[in-house]
Amino acid sequence: MYYSLHDTETEEILGTVKVINPEECKENGIEHSMEVSESWDEFNRCEESELDNQDVNDFVKWNNENRVTQIERIYLEYCQPSND
What is the DSSP pairing of strand 2-6 with strand 71-74? Predict the structure, then answer.
C-alpha cells in the first residue's frame, strides 16, 4: 500500500511512502492506513521537533521509531498524459 504525503497547509505532495509490515499490523489489529495518516498529521504539524516537519525522509525515520506501522520512502515519477 502506497500513501502520498501532503503538506497540511498547501496540499503540495511532498513524497510517497509504502507500508513494509502490513501482516504485523494486521496481527496487532492496527489499520495501517489510519496510523500512517495520523502519524503524518502529527509529524507535519509538529514544530517542537528538531526534524524538518516537511521532510519525508525525516518522517520515515521518526515514524519507524514511534509507530508499529513501518514504512519506507518510495520515489515515483509523475508523467503528464500526451495530447497526441
Answer: unpaired
